[in-house]
């Protein structure tokens, strides 16, 4: 049993810049020997991705807005032309109107509720349906990124907590659907990290400091830590884990209250 990804190839969705969680995963997977393809959202992100992709020996980048079925079809069509089969898929995508990631949850609007759940949860189904035929005959693994605001209340996380709860349930249902074809589906749940999406949540700095001071490991997750978990999941060593939410949060999720020294 090996944790090498030599001979494996896959698609990474959600690199915005070199602080993106998807980028931490891409670097770790490349270091483990995987071949990578990327999607990006719009031209500006594409320009930022180009040198990053080149640094991990990838020249496959395709524009894909997960709210737009036509770009999803084109992205997966282009990928299938190059690689008829893939071994893994990373979905690291979320969006909500920033103005609703602060203040009271009760003020969530219908429009932003629908949009947030569409981009942050439903899109995993659209992506999985298109990746499935490329994994059906050889097995594979799909993973998404979630946060513990799905099952506990985190101030300001608001509608994104509801979206992550839907995403985690989606992960379990996809795991059950695709399991008979040897395809595993999991979610990685890091603690707060300093990324573009992370910074959009009200009070992000305070949350970051709080988890650093109180997590059992007294530290926040790093890109390397999340990358290592993704490599393990995509490798043969992770071959019997499916439908799981794997915390990479220094143990923060087990706490019932802050550390005594911080009260
Ligand atoms: P990020 O801003 O670097 O990445 C978010 C990505 O989502 C971007 O690449 C953006 O282009 C993409 N995206 C948004 N809407 C899209 C659309 N319509 N079509 C295609 N792509 C779209 O931030 P990140 O923190 O690396 O976020 C990646 C994932 O990790 C998200 O699901 C996020 O909720 C999750 N996560 C983040 C943290 C954190 O603290 N940063 C913690 C736990 C989980």
UniProtKB/TrEMBL annotation:
Reaction catalyzed: a 2,3-saturated acyl-[ACP] + NAD(+) = a (2E)-enoyl-[ACP] + NADH + H(+)
Q: Which Pfam families match?
A: adh_short_C2
Print the keywords alphabetically: Fatty acid biosynthesis, Fatty acid metabolism, Lipid biosynthesis, Lipid metabolism, NAD, Oxidoreductase
Among Gene3D superfamilies, the record links this protein to: Enoyl acyl carrier protein reductase (1.10.8.400), NAD(P)-binding Rossmann-like Domain (3.40.50.720)
What EC number(s) is this enzyme filed under? 1.3.1.9
Q: Which domain of life is it from?
A: Bacteria
Pathway as given in its UniProt record: Lipid metabolism; fatty acid biosynthesis
Question: Quick check: keyword Lipid biosynthesis in the entry?
Answer: yes
- InterPro entries, alphabetized: Enoyl-ACP_Rdtase_NADH (IPR014358), NAD(P)-bd_dom_sf (IPR036291), SDR_fam (IPR002347)
Query: Which family does the similarity line name?
Result: Belongs to the short-chain dehydrogenases/reductases (SDR) family. FabI subfamily.
Protein name from the UniProt record: Enoyl-[acyl-carrier-protein] reductase [NADH]
Phylogenetic placement of the source organism = Bacteria, Pseudomonadati, Pseudomonadota, Alphaproteobacteria, Rhodobacterales
